[in-house]
Structures are given as structure tokens and as C-alpha cells.
Write a structure and sequence with these properties.
By secondary structure, the chain is α/β, with parallel strands linked by helices. The protein has helices spanning 16-26, 59-70, 124-127, 136-139, 154-164, 183-191, 239-243, 279-301; strands at residues 6-12, 32-36, 76-80, 83-89, 92-97, 102-110, 114-117, 132-133, 148-151, 171-174, 196-197, 201-207, 210-216, 221-223, 226-229, 232-235, 266-268. Strands 1, 2, 3, 4, 5, 6 and 17 form a seven-stranded mixed beta sheet that branches. Strands 8-15-9-10-11 form a five-stranded parallel beta sheet. The longest helix has 23 residues, at 279-301. It is elongated and about 65 Å long.
Length: 302
């Protein structure tokens, strides 16, 4: 029987958190395998912002440069594929891929990210990451003083209207026929000059990722330069659930300050662990995970 390849650490996910951890572990002389499909969640965005040193660069360029730097550390290997399952426990994990490959490892880092749940609105996905945005700290500066629609309702819509007024006073709320605001919230919104459009949305008019109008199901239209939408997310893989990771009420993997999950030897870092998504936070979490994993291995080997 052919011997199963073995590594000290396997990182599942080669985007920002995974690459950050891989660099830390590579610099620690650890034998690391990074399993990655090459489909980061921000691949639709033409530019990344609020990342010191790379503000305005494309995510593709940032990721390419990061991987290029990680590959300088010759103990780090990349495998192009999708991890399907993780079994075992601390120091005796087995990772299998969708094409039947198997690998053994002492430690596993889940840097698998999340998948956006795109609303069933025609034109939404075409503009997603371009002029339909989810993170004001990543994209709102570029649409400052523009006419912005907020696709949200209830408490979330009310709170987001307060935040988005920092970048533009010309904002409107689009509830898409969902739950109304309280009387008090509606009064405050009216006093602040924030219109509420309660009608169901039919589709977005857009061209090459640039939204221009929201078309309601009754045929009426409202022009906008950009839409803020708090789309839901889900884990990008079932691995955390199937192996028994504890999740919070929002579906994120629970980790401690060292990126450890409830399963010994299994770590998680990046968007799969936190609601406030950003490249900077993912990179920091990956760095923390890499340091923590190396410390565990040092203590176990000493």
C-alpha cells in the first residue's frame, strides 16, 4: 500500500488567513501543506481597501504577491483542490480531498471562509462586490456623497442607516417588502430625511457591475449610485460542522484568543470565525493561528 503523505500542519484554505498562517509556519521551519481551490470570497471586487500598504490594489494582485512570498519558504507546499473531510484528533488527523487524495497531519487550520447568500434579485450578483457592497469600511469611501440605497429592514436597517450617513446624507432604505420599522424608528428616519421604500424589489438595473436603478415589482423605479446590502453568509464547507466544531448562534466557528477550536489540534481563522469581515483581520487571525500552532508543536516535541 502506498504510504499516505504526512505534514506537521495542513491549512485548508489558501486565501488571506491561510496564507498568513502559512508564512508564519514556513518561517518556523514547519512542514506545511496548504489545500486551496483558488476561489476567495472577494474575487468579484475590483479593488481592496482599508489594508495598510495595499489600499486600492486588486484582491487578485494582493493574493498573488502573498502566495509568491509564501512559496519562498520551501517547507510550504500548495495543493490545488478541495478538502472534503477531516477525521481523527490531535496529532493524528487525516484530511481527504474531493479527488480521493489523503494526507496525514498533526495540526489542522480551517481557513475556509464563508459563502455569501445572494438574494434572489436579478442584477444583484452582477453588481456584488462592485456597487452592491457589504462592508462600509472597505468600500463606502469610494461612494461618499453618492445616492446610496440600504437593502435592509428592522433594527439592522435602522442601525445601518446611522452608520452610512457618515459617508453620505443622500441615503434611502429598501425593505424589500419585509418587516416594517417601529413607529419611533420611522419618526427618527423621517426627521433625518431618510426615505423608506417598503415595496418588493423586482430587479436592479445595472451595466458592467454599476447599478443605476432599483426597479420595484409594481414597475416604479428609483435611481441609486450604490447599494449597501447585508447579505447573509454560511460556512463554505461542512467540515467544521461534521468534525464537531462549536458554532455561535450566527454560524461562525467559535475560537479562543489563540484561534483554537473546541477540538484539540484543530484551529480556525478568518471569515469563518467572525462577523466583521476584513482582509486585515483575516491576516491578523492567520498570523495568530500560525504562532499558536507552532507553539503547540514546540511544546509537544520538547
Amino acid at each position: 500500500m502506498e504510504e499516505i503523505p504526512s505534514y506537521e500542519v495542513i491549512i485548508i484554505g489558501g486565501s488571506y488567513a491561510g496564507l498568513s498562517a502559512a508564512m508564519t509556519l514556513g518561517r518556523s521551519l514547519r512542514n506545511v501543506l496548504v489545500i486551496d481551490t483558488g476561489t476567495p470570497c472577494n474575487r468579484n471586487s475590483p479593488h481592496a481597501h482599508n489594508l495598510i500598504g495595499f489600499d486600492g490594489d486588486s484582491p487578485e494582485v494582493i493574493a498573488y504577491k502573498a502566495k509568491e512570498q509564501v512559496l519562498k519558504y520551501h517547507t510550504v507546499t500548495f495543493f490545488n483542490g478541495k478538502a472534503e473531510a477531516v477525521s481523527g484528533r490531535d496529532s493524528e488527523f487525516e484530511v481527504t480531498t474531493d479527488n480521493g487524495e489523503a494526507f496525514l497531519t498533526k495540526k489542522v487550520l480551517l481557513a475556509t471562509g464563508v459563502t455569501d447568500i445572494i438574494p434572489d434579485i436579478e442584477g444583484f450578483s452582477e453588481c456584488w462586490g462592485k456597487t452592491v457592497i457589504h462592508c462600509p469600511y472597505c468600500h463606502a469611501y469610494e461612494i461618499r456623497d453618492k445616492k446610496i440605497g440600504i437593502l435592509a429592514h428592522g433594527e439592522a436597517g435602522f442601525e445601518m442607516s446611522k452608520l452610512m450617513r457618515q459617508w453620505s446624507k443622500d441615503i434611502s432604505i429598501l425593505t424589500n417588502d419585509n418587516e416594517p420599522f417601529t413607529f419611533e424608528e420611522l419618526k427618527i428616519l423621517k426627521d433625518k430625511g431618510i426615505p423608506v421604500h417598503p415595496k418588493a424589489i423586482g430587479h436592479f438595473e445595472c451595466e458592467q457591475g454599476q447599478v443605476s436603478k432599483v426597479v420595484f415589482t409594481d414597475g416604479t423605479k428609483e435611481p441609486f449610485d450604490a447599494i449597501y446590502a447585508r447579505a447573509g453568509v454560511r460556512q463554505s464547507t461542512m467540515i467544521p460542522i461534521e468534525i464537531g466544531c462549536e458554532l455561535d448562534r450566527h454560524g461562525f466557528v467559535i475560537v479562543d484568543d489563540y484561534q483554537r477550536t473546541n477540538i484539540p489540534g484543530l484551529f480556525a481563522a478568518g471569515d469563518n470565525t467572525m462577523a466583521m469581515r476584513s482582509l486585515a483581520r483575516s491576516i491578523a487571525a492567520g498570523n495568530t493561528a500560525g504562532i499558536s500552532i507552532n507553539h503547540e508543536l514546540v511544546n509537544e516535541d520538547f
